[in-house]
Design brief:
Layout (H helix, E strand, L loop, with lengths): L8 E6 L17 H16 L3 E6 L7 H8 L3 H25 L4 E5 L8 E2 L2 H9 L3 E5 L9 H11 L4 E6 L4 E2 L11 E2 L1 E3 H6 L7 H9 L4 E5 L5 H7 L5 E4 L1
Parallel strand pairs: 1-2, 1-6, 2-5, 3-4, 3-5, 6-10, 9-11
Antiparallel strand pairs: 7-8, 10-11
Helix pairs in contact: 1-3, 1-8, 2-3, 5-7
Length: 243
């Protein structure tokens, strides 16, 4: 039996940087080819009957923490600016998904009725039960919390079977595989190991949430062909993190 049968509903967390493509430029914060690659990957999974929701970061446009440190902007204000960046990415991805003929809704933690729905848990679940992809924008709606934490929170609220963290590399390594050729890939990890080894796949708050509720997480490369579907099928190289 395919591993895909185990998953009724999943949440995909994509960093804003991933939407910039493999070789981002200062003039191109959203790479259109990458945007449509992600949308096509999502379509493949939806067509298999899996309900999909997403959380997107905003680092390709603005990062709240770095903006506060480097530009002297008040942290709360800077985090709100970062939340708005995630909304821009969510709208761009919504458009790409709809071009794949998959219905999609953007739900924002900060009310923006003119461009998206306000996040309401029961409404989000209803959308997915109707076959619509739901993109959760604006993080948790609160400063001092990352979009990784938002992903953990929404995955638990949506009763997801799996949280997928899409990154630039094909799983978790003991050190940066881009810089070190001898970096060791972990096929499986416990959440305790993730924290004790300080592997920094997600921040500690995000890890604590999913660990407490024993929600498994798969870490994989978003750049590989058909990687989203292949991870769910168990055929793509990735790291599975569980308790």
């Amino acid at each position: 039996m395919s591993d895909l049968k185990k998953y009724k509903r999943v949440l995909l967390k994509i960093s804003g940087e991933a939407l910039s493509g493999r070789t981002p430029t200062l003039s191109q914060s959203i790479d259109q080819d990458m945007l449509h690659k992600v949308a096509a990957d999502i379509r493949q999974v939806v067509m298999q009957g899996v309900e999909v929701c997403l959380v997107i970061g905003g680092g390709n446009i603005y990062r709240g923490v770095s903006g506060s440190k480097s530009h002297g902007i008040d942290r709360v204000t800077s985090d709100h600016m970062g939340m708005l960046a995630t909304v821009i990415n969510a709208l761009a991805l919504q458009n790409a998904i709809e071009q794949e003929n998959i219905p999609c809704r953007v739900m924002s933690a900060i009310p923006m009725q003119a461009i998206g729905e306000v996040y309401i848990r029961r409404r989000a679940i209803h959308h997915m039960e109707k076959g619509r992809v739901v993109i959760f924008a604006a993080g948790t709606g609160n400063p001092f919390f990352t979009t990784d934490t938002a992903a953990s929170l929404r995955a638990l609220e949506m009763n997801c079977d799996l949280l997928l963290k899409a990154t630039k590399v094909d799983g978790v390594y003991d050190k940066d595989p881009v810089q070190y050729l001898d970096a060791v890939h972990y096929k499986t990890l416990s959440y305790a190991d993730l924290l004790s080894k300080k592997l920094e796949v997600m921040d500690a708050t995000a890890v604590a949430l999913v660990r407490e509720h024993n929600l498994p997480m798969a870490v994989f490369s978003i750049f590989e062909k058909d990687s989203f579907l292949n991870v769910l099928n168990g055929t793509e190289k990735h790291t599975l993190v569980t308790e």
